[in-house]
Design a protein that fits this description.
The structure is a single chain. By secondary structure, the chain is α+β, with helices and mostly antiparallel strands. The chain is 32% helix and 38% strand. It is built from 1 helix and 5 strands, in the order E-E-E-E-E-H. The protein has one helix at 48-70; strands at 2-6, 11-15, 23-27, 30-34, 40-46. The chain has a 5-stranded antiparallel β-sheet with strand order 1-2-5-4-3.
Length: 71
């Protein structure tokens, strides 16, 4: 898995394989790119600073809740 960030356009790219990209699907600021066989090859996150901050906040809240429930 490889990560790259383009600060000039605030885009995070997560590459999971070396397959050639064939098509993609968009959900908000997230694009999932697939190979011709349907394998997920790359995830592209636009407005990455805001999107990843939101993701990390959600993860931390879930973790705190899980820890509180285990006490």
């Amino acid at each position: 898995m490889k990560y790259s960030y383009k600060p000039e356009i605030d885009v995070l790219i997560i590459r999971m394989g070396n397959d050639k990209l064939d098509h993609g699907e968009q959900n908000g600021n997230v694009f999932a790119h697939f190979s011709k066989s349907g394998k997920l090859v790359e995830i592209e996150i636009l407005d990455a600073t805001r999107e990843t901050a939101s993701l990390i906040t959600s993860i931390m809240k879930a973790k705190q809740s899980a820890l509180a429930d285990s006490d």
